[in-house]
Write a structure and sequence with these properties.
The chain contains ten helices and 13 strands. The protein is α/β, with parallel strands linked by helices. It has a single domain, classed as UDP-N-acetylmuramoyl-L-alanine:D-glutamate ligase. A nine-stranded mixed sheet has the order 5-4-1-8-9-10-11-12-13, with helices on both faces. A four-stranded mixed sheet has the order 3-2-6-7. It starts with a strand and ends with a helix. The relative contact order is 0.15.
């Protein structure tokens, strides 16, 4: 079974700093890297490295960043036949500051990602018969995300939405078109309007989101782990105790791990557990795509 990812591809420009800058503050950093990223691409690479067939549908620019991004995706085994090289817009970029405590600030400039629309949905439509799962994020226009979810729902795919970067309110039509919603703590807080800091209020938040039409809600709780609410009840999956170096792609690793596990037929609790392990492995390495683990690394870790 295969996974489709409809989403963004960026070049991440990463600065290492002693602490995150305050407004108006100039910092002297101690490192800089250009690393392939973008939530769509990150999640596609996460799936591919776990050995599950995956295709990415979206756009890159016809610039140097675009060529580098495409080459890297293909090297990781991501299907790119439906990744369009946009001749009119630059590739997306993300400006990322990571401090010595592994916290980060991220500014995304969409570029070609911001133009994803009808033509890209047509390319997505041709891939739906080959796939079991569609994985979505919010770094492309929201109207395209809603349309993609509806197309996949009509085709019988399992639709997973990572609601990041957070946008509120999400359209009712989007809630009704997805099967699994996977916010982190801050995204869940923005969606429900109250703090999400522990298992109890995470359960309440998941119930609120479930009432909006989502059958399954998984809230990523960082150092606590993940909470999964489904028609079978609530499952708490504790986090793995690891030393975090860089949390930039932890959410993408989780979603890629979840999609890959479900595509392989794992039951939801086991898929959530495995996704939590993939996320734990990712925070132990620096960078977005460079931190995403292989199948062998996951097996060894577990």
């Amino acid at each position: 079974m295969s996974v489709l990812v409809f989403g963004s591809t960026n070049m991440d420009l990463v600065a290492r700093t002693p602490h995150l800058p305050k407004p108006g503050e100039t910092l002297i950093g101690h490192g800089f890297e250009m690393i392939p990223g973008g939530k769509g691409a990150n999640q596609a690479v996460a799936v591919a490295r776990l050995g599950v067939p995956v295709q990415l549908v979206g756009r890159v620019g016809s610039d140097g960043f675009g060529a580098t991004l495409l080459e890297g995706l293909q090297a990781d085994g991501v299907g790119c036949d439906r990744l369009w090289i946009d001749p009119h817009n630059p590739s997306g970029v993300a400006l990322i500051a990571v401090d010595d405590a592994s916290e980060n600030h991220i500014i995304v400039i969409p570029g070609a990602n911001g133009q994803v629309g009808a033509e890209d949905l047509d390319r997505l439509k041709t891939a739906l018969p080959e796939a079991q799962i569609l994985l979505l994020q919010l770094e492309i226009p929201l109207a395209a995300v809603v349309a993609a979810a509806q197309l996949a729902q009509q085709a019988g795919l399992t639709v997973i939405l990572d609601p990041a970067p957070a946008q509120t309110p999400l359209p009712e039509a989007l809630y009704r078109a997805i099967d699994i919603l996977t916010p982190n703590q801050s995204e869940a807080e923005q969606l429900v309007g109250f703090p999400v800091t522990d298992w109890d209020n995470a359960t309440h938040a998941a119930q609120v989101l479930h009432q909006r039409g989502v059958p399954i809600v998984i809230i990523k709780l960082g150092k606590l782990g993940a909470l999964c609410l489904s028609p079978d009840g609530v499952v708490q999956v504790p986090a793995f105790p690891v030393e975090a170096i860089d949390t930039v792609a932890a959410g993408d690793a989780f979603n890629g791990g979840l999609a890959a596990s479900l595509a392989e037929g794992l039951p939801l609790p086991e898929a959530t557990y495995q996704a939590t392990a993939v996320a734990a492995l990712s925070v132990m390495q620096a960078g977005a795509q460079p931190s995403l683990p292989t199948r062998d690394a996951l097996v060894d870790f577990l």
